[in-house]
Amino acid sequence: MKPLFSLPSACVLSLAAGMQVLAADAPGFQLPLLPYAETALEPYISAKTLGFHYGKHHKTYLDNLNKLVAGTPWAGMPLEEIVKKSAGAPENTAIFNNAAQVWNHTCFWQSMKPNGGGKPSGALLARIEKSFGSYDSFTNAFLNAAVSQFGSGWAWLAQDGDALKVVKTANADTPLAHGQTVLLACDVWEHAYYLDYQNRRRDFVQIFLEHLANWDFAASQLK
Ligand code: MN3
Predict the structure, then answer these.
(1) How far is the CA of 152 from the centre of ligand 1 (A)?
(2) Which of 41, 87, 146, 220 could pair covalently with 45 via S-S, beta carbons 3.0-4.6 A apart?
(3) Which residues surround ligand 1, an ion (CB under 5 A)?
């Protein structure tokens, strides 16, 4: 499969820039391509899970968003701007939910790679150790956030000012709407893991950290 955006990895994200191109080139937003094959994350995430998650869940958010913004001033905006401008406004809840979920899932696909996970290195590790004390403290915080998110939501490694933080959000909410920069996203909605792990969310998130986390992506997002 082709990469998510046909750019060298150093400039892959800028999600905003990539999405802007997609918005300008098509009558609506288009589903970004997965950065790997649907089988690429096996045995940790099955092709069945990834196929449904990308081809049904992600695509449905995208289709809903395109229907909601068609013929409105939202239609010409970059995706990130829609997320930021619709956040917190009750009359824009449906637009926010679908726009944020399109953005969040694009981030999630980038946050994983085959043979990923384990301890990062270099500047990213130094920043993690500075903010959390140690890599183990970070993984504990990330696991706890992911497991304690009641119901559907997300666990994130985000940058807030100079500090790295572990953040959990409910439903479609995203650090992007709170002025934070996303370094790593983990979807903890049941559809992300139920076919492979049933109710064992902690096992899924542990596997995510040990075998899937794309630290190259996270490092590329550091400011
Ligand atoms: Mn999902």
Answers:
(1) 9
(2) 41
(3) 57, 187, 189
Q: How far is the CA of 130 from the centre of ligand 1 (A)?
A: 31
Indicate whether 185 and 140 sit together in one domain.
Answer: yes
Tokens standing for residue 141? 């915080």
Percentage of residues of the chain with pLDDT beyond 90: 87
**For residue 133, how far is its CA from the centre of ligand 1 (angstroms)?**
30
Residue-wise pLDDT for 136-161, tens only, equals 999 999 999 999 999 999 999 999 99
Could you tell me whether strands 153-160 and 181-187 are parallel, antiparallel, or unpaired per DSSP bridges? antiparallel
68 within some domain: yes
Mean pLDDT to the nearest integer, 36-55: 98
For residues 115-136, average pLDDT: 98
Residues 2-30: b if buried by 16+ CB within 10 A, e if exposed: eebbeeeeeebbebeebbbbbbeeeeebe
Verify that 85 and 134 share a domain, yes or no. no
How far apart are the CA of 24 and the centre of ligand 1, in A? 25
Distance 189 CA to ligand 1 centre (A): 6
Task: State the residue range of the domain holding 56.
Answer: 12-33+46-110
Q: Are 102 and 180 found together in one domain?
A: no
- How many domains are contained in the chain? 2
Q: Tell me the pLDDT tens digit for each residue of 14-35.
A: 443 344 334 434 568 999 999 9
Helix (H, G, I), strand (E, B) or coil at 181: strand
Q: Please check the confidence at residue 162 and state whether its pLDDT lies above 70.
A: yes
Cα of 69 vs centre of ligand 1, distance in Å, is 21
Task: Report CA(11)–ligand 1 centroid distance (Å).
Answer: 24
Average pLDDT over residues 36-61: 98
Q: Is 38 inside a domain boundary?
A: no
| Residue 40 within a domain | no
